Amino acid sequence: MQRRELLQAGLTLPLAALAGGGWLPALAAAGPAQRFDAGTVPALARALAAKAYRPADADLPEALARIKYDTWRDIRFDPAQALWKKDGLPFQVQFFHRAFLFKHRVDMHLVHGGQATPVVYRPQMFDFGKAPKPAQDDLGFAGFRLHAPINRKDYFDEVCAFLGASYFRAVAKDLLYGLSARGLALNTGAGGDEEFPVFTGFWIEQPAVGAKQIVVHALMDSPSVAGALRFAITPGTQTVFDTQLRLYPRVALDRVGIAPLTSMYHFDATDRVGIDDFRPAVHDSDGLAMHNGAGEQIWRPLHNPASLQESAFQDRSPRAFGLMQRKRAFADYADSEAHYERRPSLWVEPVGDWGEGAVHLIEIPTKDEYHDNMVAFWRPRAPLAAGREHRFDYRLHWCAEHAWAPTLATVRRTRIGAGGDGARLVVIDLDGGRLRALAADAQPRAVVWASSGRVVNALAHANAGTGGWRMSFELQPGDARVVELRAVLEDARGPLSETWLYRWTA
């Protein structure tokens, strides 16, 4: 997997106060404007796929190519030159400089009135700090970020950043950067070399005065596939990306990941063995949530395993899935610098019927919090054939919480520790849905299943300490090295809670 510095780079750049200056000098024409419409980028992707793959331009002056992260971070875009700075528009655009891990060139275009105009790089757009200032005027950009008022009407917050391969991240109101999304995942977790498609160009549509949404088009390429994406981005309490993905494979894609999410999970109350840390938990996401085609609501807590683990959750016509951060109190992490309680969840909502396939979860061992080690995506059952177009539309919700079936309680905490005689004690705290109206002396059933070993002492009771309910059981694994677990709380009317899943490993 790529280093976490790649994923965190946008966050480390400060959110500069956007006051004064103009943006027109950035738009000196590199050539005549070209006609642009909704079919332009898909046509470019289709044409790319019909040719042999050529890597994106990664040539840089040696002084820039060899700099380290801290020096690259010193290269800061001048906010006075942000696009639309002086136009009173609801969005502004700033750019990232090429260097460090971000060497390949990304062409930028501004779309207005059906015409696309290149955004021309100039060294004067950046403050280089301690980094070497290039002599050339044609280096191009590494990516960009969008700013808009989401926390205060008088301040343009950084809303999202597109930087590195096909990675992008976003925030919503009162949240900080955390997990990332990607345009596409290829051969992830396959045991061989993962292929990382890259965004090679962007076309940003100029928004109208008072617009709530901005549209960004992206061209993507890799040895195996070319693609076109359209993002309609609406910032707010939830920041929503309405996404259209068009893929044009050069070869059949049998290990493809649609709507891939990448996050970090180090430890929590399920797996503190060997952890010597003052914090109760460290993670950007604590679980994989799924709303499958049958309507079942599922929660799978994440785990930092001893060896790479891949899980596939078979489904037909999935309704949604995502990597979520459910713990939202400062005391859950006690980290006054990272503030993991403010990291966003990312919920993927397919638009249309995605057919048969599986949600895949890949959990990679990590000994620190600086590497993203969790990946989730949808993989179609049938390979994507070469030489034709494949379409996937979906909606990304960057949010603090996302409402599901209102009658079902959700898992708020999972705790695992030592039980008696070598057993493992599993404690699951639940809250919400019909449970809130359940009398404290009610007797719901904890229905627990294990793929091997024995489950004993499955119990459920009202939890006066939280106002919710607690479900617990002991797992006696015996000689099993891996046990798949499933639990749900029920009464005579049916499920009271979402379905809890977990893979226990010795």
In short:
The chain has 506 residues and is mainly β.
> Which residues sit in consecutive blocks of at least 5 with pLDDT less than 50?
1-30
% residues in beta strands: 35-45%
**Sheet/helix structural class:** mainly beta
Shape label: globular
Distance between the termini: 25 Å
Please provide the count of β strands: 34
Mean pLDDT: 91
Biggest beta sheet summary: 16 strands, mixed
Oligomeric state of shown chains: single chain
Helix content: under 10%
Radius of gyration: 24 Å
Q: Which descriptors would you attach to this protein?
A:
16-stranded mixed beta sheet, globular, 6% helix, 4 helices, mainly beta, ten-stranded antiparallel beta sheet
Structure description:
This protein is mainly beta. 6% of the residues lie in helices and 42% in strands. It contains four helices and 34 strands. The protein has helices at 4-12, 40-49, 62-65, 69-73, and strands at 34-35, 76-77, 92-97, 107-112, 115-118, 126-127, 141-148, 157-163, 167-170, 180-182, 185-186, 198-205, 214-221, 225-234, 239-249, 256-263, 265-267, 282-283, 287-291, 297-301, 309-316, 320-324, 345-351, 356-363, 374-380, 390-399, 410-418, 424-431, 445-450, 454-463, 468-476, 482-491, 494-495, 499-505. The strands form five sheets. The protein has a 16-stranded mixed beta sheet that branches. The longest helix has 10 residues, at 40-49.
What is the element layout, followed by pairings?
Layout: H1 4-12, E1 34-35, H2 40-49, H3 62-65, H4 69-73, E2 76-77, E3 92-97, E4 107-112, E5 115-118, E6 126-127, E7 141-148, E8 157-163, E9 167-170, E10 180-182, E11 185-186, E12 198-205, E13 214-221, E14 225-234, E15 239-249, E16 256-263, E17 265-267, E18 282-283, E19 287-291, E20 297-301, E21 309-316, E22 320-324, E23 345-351, E24 356-363, E25 374-380, E26 390-399, E27 410-418, E28 424-431, E29 445-450, E30 454-463, E31 468-476, E32 482-491, E33 494-495, E34 499-505
Parallel strand pairs: 4-12, 20-34
Antiparallel strand pairs: 1-5, 2-6, 3-7, 4-5, 7-8, 8-9, 9-10, 10-16, 11-16, 12-13, 13-14, 14-15, 15-26, 16-25, 17-18, 19-20, 19-22, 21-24, 22-23, 23-26, 24-25, 27-28, 28-31, 29-32, 30-31, 32-33, 32-34
